[in-house]
Specification:
Blueprint: E1 2-6, H1 11-23, E2 27-32, E3 52-56, H2 62-72, E4 76-79, H3 86-91, H4 94-117, H5 120-125, E5 127-133, H6 157-176, E6 180-185, E7 187-189, H7 198-207, E8 212-215, E9 221-226, H8 227-240, E10 246-249, E11 254-256, H9 257-272, E12 282-285, H10 300-306, H11 314-327, H12 329-332
Length: about 325
């Protein structure tokens, strides 16, 4: 297949592009605007791969998106292009609405028009995978686990923009017949993540001996998913998922933010700062506005129907991430 991946230079998108090229015979057309979050090196060496094409374009640009479909003739779309940092969505929600909602509509419409021109067999096989987030579900009560029947209850501008995009995908499937699926991924971490999210910020600040800010009292609970496991799950859903279905993607590694920071600092101290106690530099700061307290996903549909399982345990994934950060100090210098 020729797969169009939007946002394929970002953190999760670049991991997916690398996975598709390494683990399949698919051709990948990577469309990305190369915003601040696209780290140099994430796609290093791929330009020499004859099954890979990069197109610098913005998903909000209807003419550019129509041109991509016309020139590269994809058999399906995996849509990841999005603004993704909750703090930035609180400070400036407009770009999240423009990119995550309006941009999704632009690509959906280009995909619909493209599919309608395909021969019947290819049109029937065409599919759109919407890569969404568990944040669209809102905050889980103690002991509550969300399956795919959970209704949407987004609380941040970011989550609301992703929920709106999901609803557009559903509408294009029902109204226009564009075959689609949706995934809801847990908090993802690993190499090539821009240092604004909790894991890379903690790693780089710990490596530098700086204070480690934690929102509130650090009691917020998240499921932590290594990026390569997330990429493999997305590829599996795209290949074999049921049209119209939603699939939760999580590793079952649920812990508080404070516990996660303690795990990361322990690994940093062991690998890079022997004799240090980085955990002593944790400082609690004012909580994020509208901060969801807990996310927890039921992933049985993905595991039972498609046979996916995460490969890396949490500590192993965190150690791999710390080692990557140690080898890439230049990324730490991008922190605000």
């Amino acid at each position: 297949m020729r797969i169009l991946v939007t946002g394929g230079a970002g953190f999760l998108g670049s991991a997916l592009v690398r996975y598709l090229l390494a683990a399949s015979a698919h051709h990948v057309i990577n469309v990305d605007a190369l915003t601040y979050a696209a780290l140099p090196g994430a796609l290093a060496g791929l330009a020499r791969n004859p099954r890979y094409v990069f197109v610098r374009a913005d998903v909000r640009d209807a003419a550019a998106m129509a041109g991509v479909f016309a020139e590269h003739d994809p058999d399906g779309v995996i849509h990841l292009a999005a603004e993704s940092h909750v703090d930035r969505s609180i400070a400036g929600p407009a770009v999240f609405v423009e990119t995550n909602i309006a941009g999704t509509q632009v690509v959906l419409e280009a995909a619909r028009r493209h599919r309608d021109r395909l021969p019947a067999a290819r049109a029937d096989a065409f599919r759109w995978l919407q890569v969404s987030t568990d944040e669209v579900y809102g905050s889980a009560a103690p002991g509550e686990i969300f399956d795919e029947a959970r209704g949407y209850a987004p609380n941040s501008p970011y989550a609301a923009s992703k929920a709106a995009a999901d609803h557009l995908v559903q509408a294009w499937r029902v109204t226009y017949g564009l075959p689609s699926l949706i995934t809801h991924g847990a908090n993802t971490y690993g190499p090539f993540q821009y240092p604004e999210k909790l894991v890379p910020v903690t790693v780089y600040r710990a490596l530098a001996g700086r204070e480690l800010p934690v929102y509130g009292q650090g009691t917020q609970m998240r499921d932590w998913l290594y990026v390569d496991d997330h990429a493999a799950a997305i590829a599996r859903v795209f290949a074999a998922g049921r049209i119209g279905a939603r699939y939760n993607i999580g590793a079952g590694h649920v812990c508080t933010n404070l516990e996660l920071v303690r795990r990361v600092t322990g690994i940093v101290d062991r690998l890079a700062r022997p004799g240090e106690a980085s955990v002593d530099r944790i400082r609690f700061v004012a909580d994020r506005a509208g901060h969801d307290q807990r996310y927890a996903l039921d992933t049985r549909r993905l595991r039972d129907e498609l046979g996916w399982r995460p490969r890396l345990a949490l500590d192993a994934g965190l150690e791999a991430t710390v080692r990557w950060c140690m080898a890439h100090p230049e990324v730490g210098r991008l922190m605000a």
